[in-house]
Design goal:
heterodimer, A: 330 residues, mainly alpha, MetI-like fold, two-stranded antiparallel ribbon, 2% strand, B: 525 residues, alpha+beta, seven-stranded mixed beta sheet, four-stranded mixed beta sheet, 29% helix, 22% strand, transport (chain A), MetI-like_sf (chain A), BPD_transp_1_N (chain A), membrane (chain A)
């Protein structure tokens, strides 16, 4: 098991290094940060000097090496535009993104699971067909369109909810939370609905497929035959057996949601990591872009590694080759 | 228990917010956030504009964009012609209560001119400064230079004691990897002080009750609420979550104007949009460069239907330009604004006369996140040029990508917008764009042209202290620019702000900078 863990950790480290290298190759095409940092009146000599001081004239490998050496020590440098320590910037923004993703995930489960069960149990009914059709709309509508529609409906026309921002927040240590104030909670509603639209339909379709499968299983028939009430069979016995893949999917999707939150954050001016990244791209703020990519890919790699480890723990055959050949019987 | 304390604190904050409702609040939905609270560590004119509410310069622009005394009460040029003596205003205090004196001016000028400062170009002629006594400062320049006051409107004065106490005498040096105190804190003399800041969410400014000037505004608070997405910003204005924006999107203006509670403030920006040419031997394609011939440049000008671009692309909201500076800019005279006249046949004849091969291909570089409708008018111009037998290759990309290509001469024909900021004088484009590239001059001379007669006039204007003589020199220089068609002016672009009916006074400035110390809101907004 230890050998397996080491192997997984090494793989993860290599993935991270590759992501960083790729990032540095791509940054070359983002343009020149110095052009954004100085203003009209700076001379060519001033620009060249600043470029030299920031180490932008060094070769790709030198810049990459310097970035990795500093990054492993947790030092991502200073943002060009904000002149703040990049780790501080990201730490400041992480709670906003995390709370948004958390609420969106909860919405996707609370809404998606019952809808999935309903469409499976009452398949071919008008309601189920309507929900199925609605889910196609949900999958295909881009999230910025959903966002703008929500703002027009609930903020401009009805005036019920704020259309942008995060409301008042309360600091608990370094974590700023919007859960504890009325305006913070109100501000969460529209962006999290917008972010969860895709996720809701995904969960609903997965639950539906799993339920259709499970409802045909023998033990369900036996339960029915024993006279267990239908609702209990469907919502308790069948649904429980469908939830394992849903939980796996939800876990894996958290990485995606953090990455997709970028669009939602831009539409709702949500001061999270995605917003920070978009601005960094506009201003070619290389330290921030690099750190964001590293952190998001770390979240992806960590989630995947965790899932792999859990599976290996559950299923010894996945641990290593010796176990596979030794334990196999053909 | 901890949680309960938090809830109580929250309730207290909510209570305060309730009390604050009776105040006059301007909720400013900007299209982006300021970079930091330090105006001098990043070259961003929007950040400097916003922080001008907190920090002030020795002089400032009044409502008509004329220079008037601010922290300095008067000034004179000493007999050596290169030293300027400023008499400072007495009784001014910084927001932390410290008195404003000559040492603060010297320290601030040193800070912005520091060798690590990305904005040292804002004070190009500066050599040194000296406190003569507590309320007198001498500034020494590298020669006779008429535009020091224009430059000083944008040089904000910091408190020396405050900077010394917090190790902020130098601008934040990103290369050194150390954060600066002034990034998170501000202490100026201006009409407003910073109450709190959450990046990308909200920065709150409150009225400075001890301001030295008599306020023309009636604001108690300004909340700067960046809303990057244009659609969201429009929605926020309609729902009243913001009551002012300095960037009302052109495509939403009819909708905003139709809303009962919103008024749109429209004007023409000072920014002149121009087309520039390469003066190198070869084009980026490797072909011989025909653009060094003035006939070719004139032909390209005659091929453009400026009227059509004005009507269709700019929806009638731009101002067609024949001059490379806008009318309010000193140095402009109406004669410069004469238009070339749209004449594709004449253009073809000129091209033939100059021996330009049919179907000449060249790069035409435009910026996707640059000027108003830049991508659209670039497409229009490219197709107008195609009609006279040229084959422009349109290259559209974000500013960050195009800038290095342009400064390295890797593109052919390009678009440039120039508003003469922060100087507000024709000397700005003459020095930065039209002068031969050498030393401080010609930084934006991307084409690499050189007109000795033009340089002579610009240099003479740059050391002429008599205003009328200087402007005459500048006008003459602009005349050469026009005659030689060095760049082809297209139009001054439109600008639009919008306010809800809570805002009663909001003067629109053609340099597109809000100056909220002139703004008024309905009491209790």
């Amino acid at each position: 098991m230890i050998a397996f863990l080491l192997k997984r950790a090494t793989n993860a480290a290599f993935v991270m290094l590759a992501v960083a290298l790729l990032a540095f190759v791509i940054f070359r095409f983002f343009g020149d940060p110095v052009e954004m940092m100085v203003n009209e009146q700076a001379t060519q000599a001033d620009r060249a000097e600043l470029r030299e001081r920031l180490g932008l004239n060094d070769g790709l490998i030198t810049q990459y090496g310097r970035f990795v050496t500093h990054a492993v020590q947790g030092d991502f440098g200073i943002s060009y535009r904000n002149q703040q320590d990049v780790m501080v910037l990201i730490k400041e923004r992480f709670p906003a993104t995390f709370e948004l993703v958390l609420v969106a995930t909860v919405i996707s489960l609370v809404v998606g699971i019952p809808l999935g069960v309903i469409t499976a149990v009452y398949r071919n009914s008008r309601l189920a067909n309507a929900l199925q059709l609605g889910s196609i709309v949900g999958v295909s509508l881009p999230s910025f369109v959903v966002g703008i529609l929500l703002i027009l409906g609930f903020s401009v026309t009805l005036g019920w909810l704020p259309g942008f921002g995060r409301g008042e927040t309360v600091d608990i240590g370094w974590w700023s939370t919007g859960f504890l104030t009325p305006s913070g909670r109100a501000a969460l509603i529209l962006p999290s609905i917008s972010l969860s639209t895709f996720q809701v339909t995904l969960v609903m379709r997965l639950v539906r497929a799993e339920m259709l499968e499970t409802l045909r299983a023998d033990y369900i028939k036996f339960a029915r035959a024993r006279g267990v009430p239908t609702a209990r069979v469907q919502w308790r016995h069948a649904l429980r057996n469908c939830l394992m893949p849903v939980i796996t999917l939800t876990g894996m999707q958290i990485g995606n949601l953090i990455a997709f939150a970028l669009v939602t954050e831009t539409v709702f001016q949500w001061p999270g990591m995605g917003m920070l990244f978009i601005q960094a791209v506009t201003f070619v703020d290389i330290p921030v872009m690099a750190a964001y990519l590293m952190i998001v890919s770390f979240i992806f790699v960590a989630l995947n590694t965790l899932v792999d480890i859990t599976y290996a723990w559950v299923d010894p055959r996945l641990r290593d080759d010796t176990a596979r050949t030794g334990g196999g019987n053909g | 228990m901890h949680m309960r304390q938090l809830l109580l604190a929250t309730a207290a904050v909510a209570g305060l917010a309730g009390a604050a409702q009776a105040e006059n609040v301007l909720k400013w939905g900007a299209n982006r956030d300021i970079g930091s609270l330090d105006p001098y560590s990043y070259g961003d004119s929007f950040t400097i504009n916003v922080l001008n509410h907190v920090y002030e310069g020795l002089v400032r622009y009044n409502k008509d964009l004329k220079i008037e005394p601010a922290l300095a009460e008067s000034w004179e040029i000493l007999d050596d012609q290169v030293t300027w003596r400023f008499a400072l205003r007495k009784g001014v205090t910084f927001h932390d209560g410290a008195p404003f004196t000559a040492d603060d001016v010297v320290a601030s000028l040193e800070r912005v001119s520091d060798e690590t400062s990305p904005l040292k170009g804002n004070l190009p002629a500066y050599v040194s400064s000296r406190a003569v006594d507590d309320y007198t400062v001498d500034i020494t320049l590298n020669g006779t230079y008429p535009l020091l006051l224009n430059d000083l409107t944008n040089i904000h004065i910091f408190d020396k004691e405050w900077m010394t106490a917090h190790d902020a005498l130098k601008p934040t040096d990103i290369g050194a990897g150390v954060e600066g105190y002034a990034t998170y804190n501000a202490n100026g003399t201006g009409p407003f002080s910073v109450e709190s800041r959450q990046p990308d969410a909200k920065t709150v400014f409150v009225k400075n009750p001890n301001w030295w000037d008599t306020p023309q505004h009636n604001l108690d608070r300004i909340e700067l609420l960046p809303v990057t997405s244009a659609a969201t910003r429009v929605a926020a204005l309609l729902s009243g979550e913001i009551n002012f924006t300095n960037d009302a999107p052109v495509q939403d203006l009819p909708r905003l104007a139709a809303a009962p509670n919103v008024s749109v403030l429209e004007g023409v920006d000072l920014r002149t949009v121009m087309i520039g040419f390469p003066f190198r031997d070869k084009l980026s394609t490797g072909a011989d460069n025909p653009f060094t011939d003035v006939k070719v440049r004139e032909a390209l000008y005659k091929a453009i239907d400026l009227d059509l671009i004005h009507k269709k692309v700019m929806r009638g909201k731009s101002r067609i330009a024949g001059a490379t500076v806008a009318p309010p800019i000193p140095g402009y005279v109406p004669a410069l604004d004469e238009l070339p006249g749209f004449d594709p046949e004449a253009a073809k004849a000129l091209l033939a006369e100059a021996g330009v091969p049919e179907g000449l291909s060249f790069e035409f570089s435009c910026i996707s996140d640059g000027l108003v409708n830049e991508e659209q008018f670039c497409q229009a111009i490219a197709s107008m040029w195609s009609r006279v037998g040229l084959a422009p290759k349109l290259d559209v990309a974000p500013r960050a990508v195009q800038s290095p290509k342009r400064t390295n001469g890797k593109t052919d024909v390009y678009i440039l917008g120039w508003a003469t900021l922060p100087m507000l004088d024709a000397y700005s484009p003459l020095l930065q764009i039209f002068h031969t590239k050498e030393g401080n001059a010609g930084v934006f001379n991307w084409g690499g042209w050189s007109f000795p007669e033009l340089d002579r006039l610009i240099d003479a204007a740059g050391s002429e202290l008599d205003l009328d003589k200087r402007l005459a020199l500048e006008t003459e220089a602009l005349g050469i620019v026009k005659k030689e068609h060095i760049m082809l002016p297209l139009h001054q672009q439109p600008m639009a702000w919008a306010v809800t009916d809570e805002v009663t006074t909001m003067p629109l400035f053609p340099d597109n900078k809000p100056r909220l110390w002139f703004a008024q809101v309905a009491p209790g907004s």
